Amino acid sequence: MHKITKVKAREILDSRGNPTIEVDVYTKKFFAREQVPSGASTGIHEAVELRDGTKRFMGKGVQHAVNNVNNIISKKLKGMDVRNQKDIDNAMIELDSTHNKAKLGANAILGASLACARCSSVAQNIPLYKLLGGKNVMPIPFMNIINGGRHADNALAFQEFMIAPKAKTFDESLRMGAETYHLLKKVIQKHYGKDSTNVGDEGGFAPNLKSELEALHLLIETVESLGFEKEVKFAIDAAASEFYSKGKYKFGGKEREAHNMMEIYDSMIKDYPIISLEDPFAQDDFSAWSEFMKKAKIQIVGDDLLVTNPRRISMALDRKLCNALLLKVNQIGTLTEAMEAAKLALDNGWHVMVSHRSGETKSSFISDLVVGLGCGQIKAGAPCRGERVEKYNQLLRIEEELGSKAKYIK
User: Fold this and answer.
1) Which of 130, 201, 202, 312 would you label with 156, given CA atoms 20 to 30 Å apart?
2) Residue 118 and residue 345: Cα distance in Å, rounded?
3) What is the CA radius of gyration of the chain?
4) Of the given ranges (193-207, 292-306, 312-326), which has the lowest mean pLDDT?
């Protein structure tokens, strides 16, 4: 009943209209499907996302990855017990045999990995979040509501300005986030005009702002108007690798040393209710990370720095480079490795924030993952656009299902 009988992949479109991979996994009686997201700003140490590089879809096609699932991975997995996630993932890692999944493609491997987990959940009649750890912790939603960097065509170097609403329940937190988002639209219209409220890939607004402080002022005005000062805090994803070149950071129209960026971050943290700062320095500028962490009093998140890779996490732990992991399953390529990365971080006293990608699908897998692992933080974009909202809606369903068993970060 639990043996895999068929694995089938196909090319579909993600939320940006680019190709991605969808995988179906079958046993004799059960079936499940999963889809793979894709990032825009990707770290150089991420597992390889296999693209065709042909004229189709301007080089972004994934037919090669699809064929790898249908002709190679499927043969390896056929007959395996769908409940044995670690064995399944290790079999694909061995089949690929490269350090970064460049042979078969991390997108091909991940599609099969996630679909097997989903199928295992269905076959055992166990909620996915229980299968993935069963910690039952509802997360704080970190919502990207003002875009910059690679996510927008404005002058902002920083990629994301997020709000992190924290109420007594997830339902209330989500409501506060949505209300803040809708009022922010009106505040932006008041200051910059109606043509400034178009949204980016993750649902956040991308007004033509001239500086990062303008974005923070907009958030302050909005939150104070709603009376949410105690419940709604801010977070920034600087994505500094994107504005780093030849040892300098291009910020505010100037080339700056790392210590100058530290002063800028310190000033922002002092003046605004910022509780989390992601990728403040380039992915291999280790000395800057280390120096900044010596005095950091907030959450410092590694994304491009860590790429959900246990080896990079171990290195960062040894060097004391950050105190939180941004967990993106497609950065490493299998569910097993992603969960090992989360465990390594949590066991060493770090925080973990489970994250979407800018190119998303309707899959709500990360919603179950964050509740199951008990991380307490999810980054899933603005409360806008179907592929983002579905993650939040699934969390509402999980909270309702858990009832009094739901736990919350104090």
Assistant:
1) 312
2) 24
3) 21
4) 193-207
Q: Give the residue among 391, 322, 402 at the shortest CA–CA distance from 356.
A: 391
Domain with CATH 3.30.390.10 in the chain: 6-125
DSSP string, 122-184: HHHT--HHHHTT---EEPEEEEEEEE-GGG-SSS--S-EEEEEE--SSHHHHHHHHHHHHHHH
**Which segments of the chain belong to CATH 3.20.20.120?**
137-408
CATH number of 137-408: 3.20.20.120
Residue-wise over 326-344: b if at least 16 C-beta within 10 A, else e? bbbbbbbbbbbbbbbbbeb
> How many Å apart are CA 317 and CA 334, to the nearest integer?
22
- What's the confidence (pLDDT) of residue 291? 98
pLDDT of 39 reads 80
Angle value at C-alpha 57, between 53 and 60, nearest 5 degrees: 45
**Residue labelled with tokens 């040894």:** 318
DSSP assignments along 240-309, one per residue: GGGGEETTEEEETTEEE-HHHHHHHHHHHHHHS-EEEEE--S-TT-HHHHHHHHTT--SEEEESTTTTT-
In whole angstroms, give the CA distance from residue 114 to residue 80: 15
pLDDT tier, 363 (very low <50, low <70, confident <90, very high otherwise): very high
C-alpha span between 220 and 184 (Å, rounded) = 10
The sign of the torsion formed by the CA atoms of 222, 180, 162, 300 equals positive
CATH 3.30.390.10 fits 6-125, yes or no: yes
- 196 DSSP assignment: G
Q: Apex CA 160: angle with CA 183 and CA 360, to 5°?
A: 95
- SS3 label, residue 94: helix
Query: CA triplet 42, 356, 84: central angle to 5 degrees?
Result: 100
Per the prediction, the chain carries an average pLDDT of 96
* Cβ neighbours of 235 (radius 10 Å): 25
**Residue 55: pLDDT above 90?**
yes
Q: Please report the pLDDT score of residue 149 as a whole number.
A: 84
Is this structure's pTM higher than 0.90?
yes
Question: Residues with catalytic annotation?
Answer: 202, 328
